[in-house]
Specification:
Blueprint lengths: L12 H9 L11 H15 L8 E3 L5 E2 L30 E2 L7 H10 L11 H26 L9 H25 L7 H36 L4 E7 L2 H6 L16 H20 L5 E8 L2 H40 L1 H9 L5
Antiparallel strand pairs: 1-2, 1-3, 4-5
Helix pairs in contact: 1-3, 2-3, 2-6, 4-5, 4-6, 5-9, 6-9
Length: 353
């Protein structure tokens, strides 16, 4: 349900500007636009009681009331009649302010806006292309280099200085392929490059889902609060913890596709399968964790608990991304230590005459 006498989108120009600034207006094409619009409609309604005859806080008292209070009545006495849906002249009522005066719309939209624009689920995503490229490099080292070594002519088939140098080159190429595969696939439980792109994408998608779930649950809590008035509201926000993605076994799923992955259709299939295979078991009933609660008897309680839950999701997402970045930096350092010297030696070696 939208706020009383409102729709599922805000009405004020500044609200639309905030949605556009966070890339969640209707023109953005973001998946989050619909939920963000509903959230913005409620925040706008709560922040501007001067535009309606409903909930507000009596100035100087902190008391939330369901509508205008005549200036001649005591602060703790509600209006005699149900508040009018139309504005009442300010000079006829007790001074008031918004029930969530300490918050603005951008604070509510901050988390969703941070993950609104990344194209992580589409096969055209730069992460999808990076994952495919890494998978193909792994395939070249794991399959084709070893195949070349097995088929390289023996000394009885080809001899001489050129043959010896070529044979040494192929042997060193095999060493590089083995080292590269360790860096790509990871060793001793460490992440390799092959897991980086899918995990980055899954962390962003998980954060997007969690922020959207929080916004949807907060809208539902607002609807319930409006009807329940001062009764206690409590909604548990469930989602996948970002930290779970960091430690999950996450690689590009190819569904039996023959490597290398070159065709556009193969990229799309592999990337879609990765999201399905990894997130499905984590999304099953009972496996999602509480991200926090939206709760309290007052409007400001709902807003405060939203902000606390919002901060928790953001902190866990940033922590997961930082941890993954650290693991990839370790793999990169391993590349510099193991492979870079060999590459420099090849570059500096004299040509075969």
């Amino acid at each position: 349900m939208a706020p009383p006498y409102r729709g599922d989108t805000p009405q004020r120009a500044d609200s639309f500007e905030d949605l556009a600034r966070t890339h969640m207006d209707a023109a953005s094409g973001s998946r989050l636009s619909d939920t963000a619009g509903k959230l913005a409609a409620w925040v706008e309604w709560l922040r501007h009681p001067e535009e309606h005859g409903y909930d507000r806080t009596l100035a100087g008292t902190g008391e939330e009331v369901p509508g205008p209070v005549l200036s001649l009545t005591a602060p703790n006495v509600p209006p005699a009649a149900h508040p009018s849906p139309y504005p009442v002249p300010d000079d006829a009522q007790w001074d008031y302010e918004s029930v969530i005066a300490q918050y603005n719309l951008l604070q509510f939209l901050d988390g969703m806006g941070a993950v609104a624009t990344q194209q992580v689920e589409r096969p055209s995503s730069v992460l999808a292309l990076a994952a495919v490229a890494t998978k193909n490099v792994w395939w070249l080292g794991d399959a084709r280099v070893s195949e070349m070594q097995g088929k390289f002519p023996g000394e009885d088939e080809w001899s001489g200085d050129a043959a010896n140098r070529a044979r040494n080159f192929v042997a060193e190429l095999g060493t590089v392929a083995n080292l590269l595969n360790k860096i790509i696939t990871g060793v001793d439980g460490a992440d390799g490059f092959i897991e980086a792109a899918p995990k980055y994408a899954l962390i962003i998608k998980t954060a997007r889902d969690n922020f959207e779930q929080l916004a949807a649950d907060w809208v539902a809590a607002c609807e319930e609060k409006y009807h329940a008035k001062n009764n206690e509201i409590s909604v548990n926000v469930f989602g996948i913890m970002a930290s779970v993605i960091v430690t999950a076994a996450t690689v590009l799923v190819t569904r039996g596709a023959t490597l290398p992955i070159l065709q556009k259709e193969m990229v799309s299939s592999a990337w879609s399968a990765t999201f399905t295979e990894i997130l499905k078991p984590l999304s099953e009933a009972g496996k999602k964790d509480s991200q926090g609660e939206v709760k309290g008897p007052l409007w400001r309680d709902l807003a405060e608990s939203y902000m606390l839950t919002h901060s928790g999701i953001k902190e866990r997402t940033v922590s997961a991304l930082n941890e993954l970045t650290g693991r990839i930096n370790s793999a990169s350092a391993q590349f510099d230590a193991d492979i870079a010297p060999l590459l420099r030696a090849w570059h500096e070696a004299p040509p075969i005459e």
